[in-house]
Amino acid sequence: MANDNKKFQAIISHCKEYGFIFPSSEIYDGLSAVYDYGQWGSELKKNIRDYWWKNMTQLRENIVGIDAAIFMHPTTWKASGHVDNFSDPMIDNKDSKKRYRVDHLIEGFADELETKGEGARATELLAQMDRLLATSDFDELKKLIDENKIKCSVSGTSNWTDIRQFNLMFSTQLGSISEEANEIYLRPETAQGIFVNFLNVQKTGRMKIPFGIAQTGKAFRNEIVARQFIFRMREFEQMEMQFFIRPGTQQEWYSFWKEERMKWHLSLGITADKFRFHDHVKLAHYADAACDIEYEFPIGFKEVEGIHSRTDFDLRNHQQYSKKKLQYFDPEINQNYIPYVVETSVGLDRTVLMILSDAYMEEDLSTADKTDSRVLLKFPPRLAPIKLAVLPLLKKDGLPEIARDIIDKCKPHFKCFYEEKDAIGKRYRRMDAIGTPFCVTVDHESKEDGTLTIRYRDSMQQERVPIDRIKEIIEKQIL
Ligand code: ATP
Predict the structure, then answer these.
(1) Residue 414: CB atoms within 10 Å
(2) Which one of 34, 83, 356, 456 is at 20 to 30 Å from 362 when CA atoms are compared?
């Protein structure tokens, strides 16, 4: 179990220093587990979102996208089970007053055991925890914490309260007069916006089962464990797809989507050994099969995506609560039914963190005569915030004009960046640090023979190419 907290902290600092991610409202000392994306972070995030959207909608004839509102009728959350079930078992340390999610507390302790070389004990502990969580046996869970003498990281004591459930939804008031206002929730997942629109989309889009509805958007959860950067936020973004199928075919589609989604993750240029599936022992209230795709972050293997076979749980409940039929007439078998659903749900922010973790590198470039190093982000070119930096060697002799001309030709097609300040080596390093895959340098030769130097971020190799081929070279790499 890799746990490279130093690297994790280095990534967090790098994100702040280079305009990727800032703590929210930082001038007021920030807001716990809430973050803002800066100029390069928002480009990276958008590129990942677009890449997902293209894969899930444009490249598939039977999936369409929607954009539902964050606020929904309050009964939605009663029907979905979130009002009654969307809670986590928590425990408080009586000395520090710090609250923990029980599974996180035990997992943290298991990580410590692992580091101390007690891997077998850690595995047994996690297996015991899974069994007890599956039956919601809080008394035995508490015993497990006591017997292992698990301590609070703040107070260092094992003085724990009993385990209790806390609902994770944020609520607010709709309407201006408080007595008349309705309590509504900020959606804790985007999925319900898809379920309540199932018939609207099916009818207006004349969709035939099997078909999917995709959407990306914000979700809100009052998470207890903060301190994990954008891995666990209180306001975050999901990219979800609900795939509506004939009942009885769920096992086949569940396997299909497990494989498809793993293919997508691998297409991001991350090696297969960094991923694994984790099958759920304790199933959520809506699922008949579920697994996570986990990525090996610097803080260990953790979930980036969930794939759930949700049966007809959601549509059936919405039908019951709304008293509106949510059924589909299947002409192939001449029957009406409530479709079953297989869901793929990936966190956009967690994917950003995964891409950053995989791309972040500190390279030692020292030679016999001098020490040197660089920090670079080896983003796949299609996800990089900036694709091309155009750098005139000097601020004179007509070089900036040539550089501007290249930018004007390329900027309608992909994101470019112009910079003329500082020595060229320094400018290259700055571009490495924000993950720009290609830099071109305009020099005096460019004026004479219409060529320039292209420099590749990862290999640092340079070659001369004709100026009028630049657009085509870059476009080939970012398709
Ligand atoms: P976890 O067990 O880590 O709390 P979850 O199983 O509750 O996650 P799901 O409800 O399956 O998560 O949500 C689907 C995806 O949404 C997750 O795989 C994750 O990528 C993302 N996600 C969930 N909660 C958060 C959060 N608080 N911050 C950032 N991303 C999140």
Answers:
(1) 18
(2) 34
Q: Is 345 in the pocket of ligand 1 (CB under 6 A)?
A: yes
Please give the pLDDT value at position 18.
Answer: 98
- What per-residue confidence (pLDDT) applies to 1? 40
Q: Is 317 helix (H, G, I), strand (E, B) or coil?
A: helix
- Which regions of the chain are under pLDDT 70? 1-3, 176-181, 225-227
Residue 241 token pair: 């797809």
Tell me the CA distances in angstroms from 101 to 32, 91, 110, 156, one per residue in order: 16, 6, 14, 17
Going by CA atoms, what residue is nearest to atom 16 of ligand 1?
A: 347
Find out whether the beta carbon of 238 lies less than 6 Å from any atom of ligand 1.
yes
Strands 182-185 and 171-174: antiparallel
pLDDT in tens, 109-140: 999 999 999 999 999 999 999 888 878 899 99
* CA-closest residue to ligand 1 atom 23: 347
278-317: b (≥16 Cβ within 10 Å) or e: eebeeeeebbebbbbbbbbbbbbebbbbbbbbbbbbbbeb
Burial class (CB in 10 A: 0-12, 13-18, 19+), 446: buried
Nearest CA owner, ligand 1 atom 18? 305
Residue with tokens 């099958």: 279
CB 256, CB 249: distance < 8 Å:
no
pLDDT digits (tens, 9 = 90+) for 135-187: 889 999 999 999 999 999 999 999 999 999 888 999 998 876 666 568 899 99
Mutational pocket test of ligand 1: of 225, 302, 303, 354, the residue with most ligand atoms within 8 Å of the beta carbon: 303
pLDDT at 39: 98
Pairwise CA distance, residues 355 & 381, whole Å: 12
**From start to end of 259-383, where are the E strands?**
275-279, 289-297, 300-311, 328-330, 335-337, 340-347, 360-364, 373-377
303 lines ligand 1 (CB under 6 A): yes
pLDDT of residue 88: 84
